Known about the structure:
Belongs to the aldehyde dehydrogenase family. This is NADP-dependent glyceraldehyde-3-phosphate dehydrogenase. It comes from Kineothrix sedimenti. Keywords: Oxidoreductase. The structure is a single chain. The protein is of the alpha/beta class. It is built from 14 helices and 24 strands. The strands form 7 sheets. The protein has a 7-stranded mixed sheet with strand order 14-17-18-13-12-20-21, sandwiched between helices. The protein is globular, with a radius of gyration of 24 Å. The model has no long low-confidence stretch (mean pLDDT about 95). The structure holds NADPH dihydro-nicotinamide-adenine-dinucleotide phosphate (NDP) and 3-phosphoglyceric acid. 3-phosphoglyceric acid binds near residues 163, 446, 447 and 448.
Amino acid sequence: MMTLIKDDNNLYRNLINGEWVESKDGKYITVTSPIDNSVIGSVPAMTKNEVDLAVQAAKEAQKDWKHVTIDEKAEILYHAADILLKNKEELAGLMVKEIAKDRKSGLSEVERTADFIKFTADTAKNISGESIPGDSFPGGKTNKVSIVRREPLGVVLAISPFNYPVNLAASKIAPGLMAGNSVILKPATQGSLCGLYLARAFQEAGVPDGVLNTVTGKGSEIGDYITTHPGINFINFTGSTEVGQHISQITNMVPLLMELGGKDAAIVLEDADLDLTANNIVAGGYSYSGQRCTAVKRILAVDQIADQLVEKIMSKMEKLAYGNPLEKDVDIVPLISSKAADFVCELIDDAKEKGAKLLVGGNREGNIITPTLFDYVTTDMRIAWEEPFGPVLPIIRVKDKDEAIEIANASEYGLQSAVFTQNINDAFYVADKLEVGTVQVNNKTERGPDHFPFLGVKASGIGTQGIRYSIESMSRPKVTVINLPHQE
Ligand SMILES: NC(=O)C1=CN([C@@H]2O[C@H](COP(=O)(O)OP(=O)(O)OC[C@H]3O[C@@H](n4cnc5c(N)ncnc54)[C@H](OP(=O)(O)O)[C@@H]3O)[C@@H](O)[C@H]2O)C=CC1
Ligand SMILES: O=C(O)[C@H](O)COP(=O)(O)O
């Protein structure tokens, strides 16, 4: 399957109007593995002219695509999901090399993506319009009826991050297509090989020429051009708050759906089941080395149980394996870049200097940061507020649930939080007061299942994702009002 999207020198191509095209001016970006810096491929650094061609193709193709029946579109998506499953070993293998995800998580990402695509097709089949009688509003008349259908928005620009290069691209493409839009995928440069592979799967499944196109190139170079392109009708972005805010500042009247950074808190109350809590904190904080927007990024534990909780977390952390995901099954993998690892080390050093107690880890081997746990973190430390996107967890001890809520809400972010307690009243008390998109009761913070609404408030995002929610975000109501001759 891969041979069509790259040549023998591992120069990858972009999908534009149904053709896999080389870089026109021969400019490529080399993609190296975060594991050992080996070159795994190169992607075109697309020029403005090439971007124009992609947008033009998308615009033209959408005119026919919007008339394709839901059922036909669904068949194509089912086929794409099957192609991904058939090739899951190869795609997961590419993910291991390109973003250093461990193979098991890579496989699970591909499987989850296939499920996501199929569920999107099924959901779109079940989204019906509505008709609203005119006399249901005061002063309305029985001769009026409003018929409400959903219309596509046009050309959707999907910008995906490195950490789920297949899933977070497909979760924009599939609902975008089902809503009748054409889509341009701009994958994260580190992750673009996986993104192109995914586009190939959609093409092979029967997505018509021009309906899905790809644009590669550094966001810092072509980002502004594409996000402000007049041919773009919607931007669906997942990535850092910094870039998300930049996009929202430079765009003009283009609707945005954004999932950005987070500093998800795990709030642990005095009656929590501490084994369950520790399991969730370790899984939630350290999987894929903490490079997940929804990773548990701080623990707010009430004094009464903090010592016991620390002991349990430490004992579970002993089982975390770290190393090279090409060589063995590991939980902790090299971070995406040495710059990312440098940043995490800065946060670790700051916490140490300001007197936090380092309980576990704190070491660096290449791009690997060993799983790290700090206790007695205080609010003057950077690790209390900043998102490491690495395997470092701070414990902030609090006197009670109200102090936990206050610290949780003082964050600029508002993605998710978790509360661990066996008291339903306390669970609701805390959940009601937290300024986040989702509160998990007795579970780690996480996005799935993917048909749940997923959203961030404050600096964590704009709009709501989740299968039905994404389809709705990428479409709009179209209203036709029937005015019958007035009945006597
Ligand atoms: N809430 C969420 O769902 C998620 C949040 N994140 C957040 O993202 C950060 C790390 O992910 P990372 O991929 O590095 O995030 P970035 O924000 O750096 O990149 C995300 C995407 O935006 C592109 N991009 C960069 N600059 C621009 C620009 N000026 N205009 C348009 N697009 C641009 C990138 O391309 P390129 O790679 O070429 O620079 C990439 O495709 C973390 O802070 C994390 O919190 C990450 C994943 C999920
Ligand atoms: O962008 C992210 O990091 C994801 O949306 C998180 O998804 P997860 O909770 O399923 O890991």
